[in-house]
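Notes to self after the call with IL:
- keep both proteins in one doc
- input above output, always
- annotate only the second one for now

Protein 1:
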Amino acid sequence: MKSLFSKEKWRQLFYTVSHPSDGFYWIRHGEKGSVAIAILMVVLFGLCFTLNRLLAGFVVNDINERTVNALWEMSGVLMLYLLLCVGNWSITCLMDGEGRLKDIAIAIGYSLLPMIVCYIAATIISQFVAENEEAFYAIIIFLGTAYTLIMALIGIMQVHNYTLGKTLLTLLLTLVAVFIIIFLMMLIANFIGQVFGFVKSIVPENVLLTSFSILMQRYKGVLDTALRGADALDTLSDGDTVLVCEGCTHHRQCGDIGTVKLPAWIRKYTGKELTFEFTS
């Protein structure tokens, strides 16, 4: 563990920020980089991004903090990082790239340090900017983003020993690969969602069939209560009020199950004009 976070590894990180071309060269050919530090940079970026959305001054930030879900945003940052690494590796394997998946992960992770620093600085400065001074905040974010993109470009170019033109082409194809991976993941998720219906259609009626959700309700001891609630749907009339109580700890998102999907399903099932109230 000490070798992953040694002083030499940290020095290489800061040297790479100030000397991107030379730094990434020695990361590839001198084994001076650290995947652990690169992942730590990704986590720190996700944290700084979320804190910026939560704590930036009201002059530059109109986001409702109740809509910010730190866990989901961190998961999204890590997932995007993984997709970019795998996407670039899959493309460069076909285009004679010399970089390993490890080198790609380090190059992208190290490139995030300027954005981390700039997001922290911008969040602090946002507490002091007045109206019509938002440009200072925007410039800091822009500089951090621009330098991160430049570092990532140089890093990919160095670890694969590409020309600038070939690097730009592979980055474009990397984005295509990422979209293909996301499409395949959505396709698999949709297929899994239809498996239950398929299994139900081929299982004989005399064979009992259930799902994980039902088993979990039974395990928690609330299945009988849930069944009585489902039976009550048939007694609803126009104008009745339905109380939806959520037990989840996450912030409500667009298309939330409790506040959007469940009311829509109930209205469709009953065919009634109902009023919904929510609590969590």
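Protein 2 (the one to annotate):
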Amino acid sequence: MKKVILAVAIALSACNVNAQTQAPDFADEATAKFEQQMTTVKAKESELRTLITGKEMTPELRVKADSVYAQYMKLYSDALGTLKSELESHREDAATAQLLVKYQRQLGLDYLAEYMKSYAHAEAEELASLRSTLAIEELKKPGSPLIDFELPDEAGTMHSLSEYVGHGRIVLVDFWASWCGPCRAEMPNVKAAYERFHDKGFDILGLSFDNTREAWLKGIADLGMTWPQLSDVQGWQSLAAKKYGVHAIPFTILFDKEGRIIATNLRGPALGNKLEELLGK
């Protein structure tokens, strides 16, 4: 009888060990699937960057760029859909935490905030940094005041955001980088809004996530941006990224005349529509 009990105990122990070792497997498989899809996404982004970098944005090129950008967004959306499907199926699994941490930039903080509300292991130690990031996300909601900090301009002179925001004009703070294909594709929309509404009380402040001063300055010139620009050329480690919890670009924050947030991430016609609402046609 003791031998039988011992055999059963060993079998149960083996089952538990197998369960523990197999638990992360879904995360590994989900990572492999997502990375495979992202290879195609990155190739399409590279195609977009090559198409528009250093070229004048003619109407013909605009049509081509819009088409490639739409393809890029579809591929990216499909990849995220695959990843989110895996996450939704494993809300009770501790191994899910590693995916939330690894892909928080791609998943987006709005999605993560909702997911964490019902994730069984939301208080796990490895998610401490994500919880802090989500707390910062609360500071980007409409009505929130400016988070002030200083960055250098092209000449190296330090400026605070409060020098540009909260002085009786609508201000778009645009987080971008010269290496970002989607940023370049979106820039004609941003320039059009600036040209249309600047005289009515609209300004833009660019905050670059470039890694070198040379690439940053070349990007400004190539894209024809005439509004103020600031950057510490620290890439994703930029102070701007840390202060506002920015994990993906292009990203924008629209501030009202008093320096409070109106909206975030307005792209394409959405920016022009909002400015029409605020400043008139």
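Annotation: The beta strands are 150-152, 158-160, 170-176, 202-208, 229-230, 251-255, 261-264. Residues 26 and 45 are 28 Å apart (CA to CA).
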